[in-house]
Design goal:
This protein is α+β, with helices and mostly antiparallel strands. The chain folds into two domains: 80 residues; 203 residues, Sandwich (Jelly Rolls), CATH 2.60.120.560. The protein is built from three helices and 15 strands. A hairpin with a 2-residue loop joins strand 12 and strand 13. The longest helix is centred in the first third of the chain and has 41 residues. The protein starts with a helix and ends with a strand.
């Protein structure tokens, strides 16, 4: 300990002893210590004065903090004690009643049937929307006619829930992208392959780039799993599509999202798309409002694939 500190303690002790001999109370002793520069040299009493003030401030802040915490606890307790279950109950508006399908995959009561096994009345040529779709309907399924090109729905959609079943031929040939290739365009923004594609492909023991396999949002998402059945068996897609929204000047306001189940297994979980899906180049957005749903007639040489039980529910 330094000489100055020893002197400070010594003089403070003498002053405290003197105050007790004079029968001075505790408050007066503190004032006597704080204002005793007549006895203790000025630098030393200043140090002691600062130490005492710091202690007093610390204790005061602790006291105020304790008071605030107590007040908050009392307020919360009062709120909880007066709260009722009814305070958090919402009764209106009531959701509309929808009758579910009788079996898994069957359309619910509010679904729009895009293909029910009889005809392609809900479809047109994607190359010429004034021309009918010319794929082959037989035995309650529709099979791709590669020579006729892509087909798309007459109706346009924004946000929706979608169901479709598809089958790779049992005698499929080829490998990679040349084996049972097609595509489901969740929004068709033009002829040919313009839009947002969910890949359709034989991915059962068939190697290819993972952002181009079945379940991928083509060249953007990598599926979370590969639940493909073998060729000859029916596969099922269930998707929820949230269309992008654009500002008046064409700039993007909010992106597109897709959630996809393949054979009941989640493969894309609210995936944010970076724009349209492209075979070459980087994705980009271009403004549109509503769009048809498109099925692709891919030009690979493998046997054509088939579809059935296609329906959609519009979401507000």
């Amino acid at each position: 300990m330094s000489d100055n500190a020893i002197s400070t303690v010594h003089y403070a002790g003498e002053r405290l002893f003197f105050s007790r001999r004079l029968n001075v109370n505790q408050s007066q002793r503190a004032r006597l210590l704080l204002h005793s520069d007549a006895i203790v040299p000025r630098p030393e009493i200043q140090l002691l004065r600062c130490m005492l003030l710091d202690i007093m401030r610390t204790q005061m802040w602790k006291f105020f903090a304790f008071v605030i915490l107590v007040a908050m606890a009392v307020s919360l307790y009062a709120q909880q004690s007066t709260a009722k279950p009814e305070d958090t109950e919402v009764w209106h508006p009531e959701p509309k009643v929808v009758t579910p399908g009788a079996t898994c995959g069957a359309p619910p009561s509010d679904a729009i049937i895009l293909f029910g096994g009889k005809n392609l009345d809900e479809w047109v040529s994607a190359q010429n929307r004034s021309a009918p779709a010319k794929w082959i309907v037989a035995n309650s399924v529709v099979t791709v006619n590669k020579a006729a090109g892509n087909i798309e729905t007459k109706r346009t959609f924004r946000n929706y829930q979608f169901h479709m079943e598809w089958r790779i031929p049992e005698n499929i040939t080829g490998s990679g992208q040349l084996r049972g290739n097609s595509g489901l365009f969740l929004a068709s923004t033009g002829p040919e392959d313009a839009g947002y594609e969910l890949q359709v492909l034989d991915s059962y023991n068939n190697k290819t780039y993972v952002n181009g396999m079945a379940g991928s949002l083509y060249k953007q998402s990598i599926p979370l799993a590969n639940p493909m059945r073998k060729p000859g068996e029916w596969q099922a897609y269930d998707a929820v599509w949230t269309a992008p929204v654009f500002n008046a000047d064409g700039s993007l306001k909010s992106p597109a999202y897709a959630t996809v189940f393949l054979n009941g297994v989640l493969v894309d979980n609210h995936f944010e798309l970076k724009g349209e899906t492209l075979y070459i180049g980087q994705p980009f957005y271009k403004k549109f409002d509503r769009a048809p749903i498109k099925l692709q007639a891919h030009d690979d040489p493998s046997p054509p694939i088939s579809f059935r039980n296609i329906w959609v529910r519009e979401l507000n």
